[in-house]
Target: ribonuclease H
Amino acid sequence: MPHDRNSPRLFKSCPSFDDLTLSERIDLCEQCDRFFARCCHHSEVVCHYHCFVFVDGACAGNGTYGARAGIGCAMGLREEDQLSLPVTDGMDPRGPRTNQRAELLAAIHGLQLVVDADREYHVGSRAHLKSRETEREYIVVSDSEYVVKGITEWVQQWKRNSWLTTTGHTAENADLFRRLDDIVSAHESRGLKVQFFHVGRELNSVADSLATRAAARSITL
Model:
């Protein structure tokens, strides 16, 4: 199902990159080992204004009693720029563990990871920090079409309909979509631009590995 290209929360690379593969639109900085979107205006150098964080969720025994879930987030290749966390009752007390909930939790934690890390990277006066933040864009990269379409399209429809679907039922995983939407909206109110980017699993191998390892450490319900 195609994405709504008009959604302000959906990441769109430069039209001049239409002939490039998705992997060619992703840069890795050799100095900081972090991921960024390829720059429209300076495509031969790494532009640090479009910060990528790759996220993934894994769940062994999806939706069953005893399922084990984990999340993986990577804004770069260094260990300090990554998260590999088992899904616990503290993180998600609702249960049962499912792949969709793990994917949403990964997006929530990944967004906070990249925003917090970027804020620490640009330590300085409040005026300097504010100006740096408003120049940057934070892009959550996921191989889950469910997450990307949900937060860029469906959420707005659900909110207008009291979090009910067109069939009159409460949207599945509405609690996590609400959490993610609240976080994104809070950043947007501060002038930060947050977007989401759907890619194939082959481009999400780092986060996938982190999530799989985390799920293996998870405690079953």
User: Anything to note?
Assistant: The first strand starts at residue 26 and ends at 28. The radius of gyration is 17 Å. The chain has a mean pLDDT of 88.
